[in-house]
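Worked example 4.2. Below are the chains of a multi-component assembly; read each line carefully before continuing.
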Amino acid sequence: GESVGLHLPTLSVQEGDNSIINCAYSNSASDYFIWYKQESGKGPQFIIDIRSNMDKRQGQRVTVLLNKTVKHLSLQIAATQPGDSAVYFCAEGFGAGSYQLTFGKGTKLSVIP
Amino acid sequence: DTGVSQNPRHKITKRGQNVTFRCDPISEHNRLYWYRQTLGQGPEFLTYFQNEAQLEKSRLLSDRFSAERPKGSFSTLEIQRTEQGDSAMYLCASSPAPETQYFGPGTRLLVL
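Applying the procedure described above to all two chains together yields the following structure tokens:
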């Protein structure tokens, strides 16, 4: 099928290594941030979220860091596995009305076995 | 499996034809969103429903596009007089609360 990751920045990591995917967001009023994983031909899959009153949140094998001063978000994946290969998007929302999400451009993660 | 379903998964149509997509959200989610995604880009917001009320529409949603959620459950997105520029993946998401949105698999539209 068509590749979601066409012409996206690519991060290649060795299986078992840690991955760090970075994202710059645009709206200083955003108070909610989400990381999604998207495999080719599928819809975005929720990974982890964080509110603006936090600077770090951990899940299973994933950690999100938020730096509001420089409007930067990162996703850390521990012990990267081949199944982690996908395109990763950060998204921002703010607490007015719909909470519509604004997505970043995405990063393609390739895990080398 | 997020529980959001979309039909059809793929649609090929000729320019000028009308198409309609359906989204079935996770049951009891009162918020429903439509997004559009083109190759190499992140999804872009189109419109939002809370229950049956369409509360927000993006300027991307031209007058050829219409969305409904008549009973506050499933939703349809119709595109009239399709153009080649409408070719994209159309994504539906639902949410029980203002934040976390769960996406369906999408409907990929190709306009010839």
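Take a moment to check your reading of the output against the notes. The longest strand of chain B covers residues 88-95. The two ends of chain B are 31 Å apart (CA to CA).
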